[in-house]
Amino acid sequence: MSDESIRLVTIGRILRRRRRLLSLLAVVGALVGYGTSVLFPPRYTASASVLLPGQWEERELLTQVNIATSSAVVDRVAATLGRPGVNGGDLRDRVSAKAADGNIITISGTAETPERAQRLSDRTAQQLVTFAARIAGDSSDPEAATGPEALRQKVVQTDRRITELANATDAGQSVESVQARTALEKLRTALEEAMKKLDQADPATSKAGMVVMGPAARPTGQAPPTRTQLVVAGALVFLLLAVIGHLAAARMNRRPRTEPEIAAALGSALLGRVDVPGERPAHRPEAGGRMNRVRRLLGVDTPWDVPTPQLSGDEAGRQIRYQRVCARLRDRLPAPRRLLVVVPEGDGTALRAAGQLVALAGNDPAPSSSSRGNPALRVVEVPVSRPMVPDSGAESGALVVLSAGSWTAGELAGLAGACADGGHEVVGIVVADTVRARPTPSDGDPPDHAPAALAAHGNATGESV
């Protein structure tokens, strides 16, 4: 399986096993998004289009776009709006412009109401056209047009004077008259070429003035981000952060999972692993306080990153595992004695496995020459936050039963230290694994407890398992 498949499987496991917590966090994120939308008033955006007739290069269009959002235009817009307390600096962040295809500049204005947004975009477009016409020397501006127009009038007058001089020259073929007429024609030709170059260099002759393509349409919806978008974004952000947090916690997780790691943390030998069918036991009212009830309600009372339980064998196979653990426990004890079965508080799987061990040890027959008998076991749940084990008295020794991957090395070391403080030697460790129970057999199939009884009888007579 590739790394990508593993990540997808991991994310799917988080979504499935932490769905209650993730749903709660998504609701909290949606509420935060709603609160953000309340703090920031809604905004509306209207757009007006300005047409630039003629041929324009891309850099020229960009120049007009920058002019549309410059202080020279925006300050004029603020003056025409006549809103007290609003200046060009306040409007500069609310006005934007961009060049579109077909020599069109789209000017957008954002305001608190649709009417204000429409008025802002229309006034900005009008001021852009006025300012651009003033710069380009449009004929609509008399002061800007006096220079080129006066020059053209002087050229026309000069051309007329040249014609008069040419007519007044002697029509004869003398050398002087021919030279005079030739000089006058050269002067006329030079003036015509100069006027052509002047017309080509004048933008007012090659490009017509800008035109506003109608008033801006009044916006009917809010500008993004809308309230709905903020609510959805808040829920998605909180959900994404929760998933990333779970992945980061799993990457930093140092909880012992393998048998050598668990044995090293508790400082004792592992007696074996037993299987517990994966069914939720009824929670006792006295087990845990308010925080534990909240954890169970949110579904965070069990680790999410434990592997999916494997399909269990029959009841006989599970009983054989418990019998082997009891046999190894007898081999480690010089004589039968009472032991404490220490279970971390909140570890339901380990608690059920400890109950099975106690039941199996209590059903063992009296000691004989071939079997020393099982020790008497008593289960105690110890909180891992502040572990406390009863002092050595009737019981001398402790058997630790726990599930893999649920506790850190420090918590396991704390359990071992609490056992030592109480005068109990940790004689062994049993790891409980959650498995999926097989479907209930039909009436015609032999019951599972029959092979289990045979296996238990063989163990009682001292046969090897």
UniProtKB/TrEMBL annotation:
Q: Which segments show compositional bias classed as Low complexity?
A: 450-465
* Localization of this protein: Cell membrane
- Superkingdom is Bacteria
Alphabetical GO CC annotations of the entry are:
plasma membrane
What the entry lists under InterPro entries is as follows:
Bact_polysacc_biosynth/exp (IPR050445), LPS_length_determ_N (IPR003856), TAT_signal (IPR006311)
Question: Any idea which UniProt keywords this protein has?
Answer: Cell membrane, Membrane, Transmembrane, Transmembrane helix
Q: Which Pfam families match?
A: Wzz (PF02706)
Span of domain Polysaccharide chain length determinant N-terminal: 5-64
Ranges annotated as spanning the membrane? 21-40, 230-249
Quote the PROSITE patterns the UniProt record gives: TAT
- Topology with regard to the membrane? Multi-pass membrane protein
Region feature Disordered, mapped onto this chain: 437-465
Q: Which family does it belong to?
A: Belongs to the CpsC/CapA family.
- Which PANTHER family does the record match to this protein? CAPSULAR EXOPOLYSACCHARIDE FAMILY, TYROSINE-PROTEIN KINASE
* Designated name of the protein: Membrane-bound polysaccharide biosynthesis protein
Organism, per UniProt? Streptomyces uncialis
Q: Top-down, what is the taxonomic lineage of the species of origin?
A: Bacteria, Bacillati, Actinomycetota, Actinomycetes, Kitasatosporales
